[in-house]
Amino acid sequence: MLQHRLDGPDDAPVLVLGPSLGTTWHMWDRQIPELTRHWRVVRFDLPGHGGAPAHPADSAAALAQRLLATLDSLGINRFGYVGCSIGGAVGIQLGLLARERLSSLALISTSPRFGTADAWRQRGVVVRTNGLDPIARSTPDRWFTENFVAAQPAIVEWAVQMVRTTDPGCYIAACEVLAAFDVRSELGSIGVPTLVMAGAEDEATPPSDARALVAGIPDARLAIVPGASHLTPVEQPAAVTELLIRHFTTSWQESPAGPPAPAPVIAPSPHRPVGAIAELESAEQSAARTDNYDAGMKVRREVLGDAHVDRAQENADDFTQDFQDFATRYAWGEIWTRPGLDRRTRSVITLTALIARGHFDELTFHIRAALRNGLTPEEIKEVLLQTAVYVGVPAANSAFALAQGIIREETTPDE
After folding, report:
1. Which range among 74-88, 283-297, 398-412 has the greatest average pLDDT?
2. How far, in Å, are 23, 34, 65, 141, 165 from residue 160 at the CA level?
């Protein structure tokens, strides 16, 4: 069950509103007066947000399943859905998993793939080490335009406090959800009318991400909202409300049906035209594999980071490619994927073995991997102290020197 709130007439059709990472259901407060004239509105909080129980989910699909269970408990079968950012990721999963229950869909500040996995995992490392305060202080730059920050200091401070009071563990888990989210190849299966909305000045999920969604979803239309960054419903509430009412009153499906013909691009008002729908380039399809190479590559990227794996792949040639494939298939696909130990424990073992054998080049990127796998700097220090006793002080001394620089680099928030 997700923490939730209902507003509007009991007998009206249901519209569900999904929040962004670091926000609560209050991000939709300025849409509620108008939306509740037409719908019974259900708002929900993500785990650990707004005082909700801190039971993190491990994927957008898991969040979608929790939402469906919550709606089941309320006796709600059919509904429309609006989601912002990670809330939009939940909406995409609803379009894939529960199309028969979804009347219409709106995705705001959403992407089929949110940036890079490394960036989200790096944010998790910062939160794990420093808490949420550095992330909260940088929120205005990510969420709002400069003009809005200058003109609305009270709203900006409210947004900062929302982030600051979120449960850190649930925030980190949500970062992992976004790191793993990639539905580029699945968009064609979303079979309900969809409005895709983007802030014209959003750098986190730019309009190009919105155009990729529109190009991939069979029945989608696009709205670019001027004067808005990432948290578009808060920064431009009137425009967002107008768009949502227009979309849901004209595209609501009472029963499942095949996708109708593509709808035209719409704008916040007749005087504010939106950008044209862009063509989405065909994504390269990787060859089907019958072994555990793909599973190994997935884990290898999650543990070592995209940048490291990409460098290794780029540097491979005819002489070394077989070894790269071997390492991916056996070390990562057979050992690191085994369920007997969690990744934190495997990192502890790996750090100890590398120090014992003097493999300090490999130790460098496995210290970064240990942080991604959830070890804190204090726990890494304890591992190195243990090696000093059983492996030797000179080896541990070299390991401490390496780890000190890496931990400072990985846990220092960006200015």
Report:
1. 74-88
2. 9, 26, 29, 11, 9
